[in-house]
# Entry
Amino acid sequence: MPREPELSLNERSFVLQALQENIRIDGRSFDAFRGLELNFGDEYGVADVKLGKTRVIARISAEVTRPFPDRLFDGIFTITTELSPIASPAFEVGRQTDQEVILSRILEKAIRRSSALDTESLCIIAGQKCWNIRADVHLLDYDGGLTDASCIAVIAALQHFRRPDVSVEGENVTIHAMEERVPVPLSLLHHPICVTFSFFLGGGIVLVDATLQEEMLRNGELTIALNRHGEICQIAKLGGVAVEALTFLNCTNIALVKAQEISRFISKKLEEDLKEKNPSRLLVELSAENER
Amino acid sequence: MALSPLVLPGDPIPPGALPTSSNPSIPLKLGPGLRHIPPDRIVPVVAGELCIDHKKNAVWVETNGGRYIPTAGDLILATVHHSTSDSFSCSISPHTPFASLPHLAFAGVTRKTRPQLNPGSLVYARIALANKHMDPEIECVNPATGKSDGMGELKGGMLFDVSLGMSRRLMMPNPSAQGSMVILDEIAEKVPFEMAVGRNGRVWVDAEGVAKTLVVGRAIQETDEGNLGVDEQRKVAKRLLRDL
# Structure
């Protein structure tokens, strides 16, 4: 009978006492992320993110479908999340928990509704054919920071993904195999990053990237999604303790610094991956894509 | 300490590797990770180190991993989940069913002086009964002597999660010599602390103040996660004590 791990009274009072003394259990400072690792798979569009002990894999896939009748000029982009018992005994198969719903809603708002992916570029023939881009998020190990890690995974995977090239002659659409024509990257307008803040002791203490232990003790949370230019895409404060406006402003400033750091980290990793996979930069030379 | 051979599941174990007891009346005992296939084959079912105790005529496979399975006689750290009319239901790990801890299984307790444990209290207990398909039963008293033997509710301190192999290493009679676990001795020279190790992969540590407790906990966790050798453990101990 698996269930959520519970904290003993000893752990609760110790963690809170430590926070009052400005100490975190894992020795980080209050505004520090855990060690972030990012690896790409052999295929396009697979990103494996490790944030401390939390591990998330995102996979992007594309297929050609008919666009929605009310959006004839747009492609389709969906994000699905899956929390399976492999990550934590608290997750069950087939039953959507509140946590899973909240996660997919936040990702949806941060990435899809902020139009990070330009869906108009996914249109092949208006009203008849378009690309359906699907992002699957799989959680493999859970130690808090789920939203942040999933968002990083999806954004990195979207940047890494290449879809097959398409040519249109009248009504005929040809999808060229990956070997035939250089596959095309998705057109991303910006790269939002989620940063979650946890409030303790009535909002007096603010932590970035809480572990599972800290998440179980927090009085409130705040997720800010923003890109490296400081454009905020969403602020999610779902209940919890009331927070002063000044603290709120402070959080957005910290979030901006973190988003810039993470964006830089992702682009560095993408460059490394590109170099590793085609050392002669052949694909880059062959590509006819224009940089936006 | 002689290097023990590594075995993989299904490997044949040569008869020479089995313990040779001086007293032929003691039967050969197979511990965790080994399976007897009649008439005379002994096959490991997990990968790990083949350990032999010649005195007890016992052989088992030492491996670090997996979930804790309650076994009678193990000392564990359990969290009280709720109380029923005559026992506490305690959580040993998120994967195991609740263990029952009778109200009367404490040292020096009568029907009138039952212990009052709130949900979330931490107890150091021994598994009294663990059968398949049955909820385990635990106790905080030695039934032979009626004494607590150090078991009971733990107050203050902090709980740290470690691997099962590490908790077995810490429970050896002499961890520094048998399990090459020198980091605790190094730290104990500077920081006095109290600790209780549970077989279920939990370690409770209490020292004076938050920072000192964390030094001990981090030392154990870092040794466990990095699988550190003796010299590396000394380095970690020095670093942790310097930062204190």
Notes: The helical segments of chain B are 164-170, 175-178, 183-190, 210-226, 230-243.
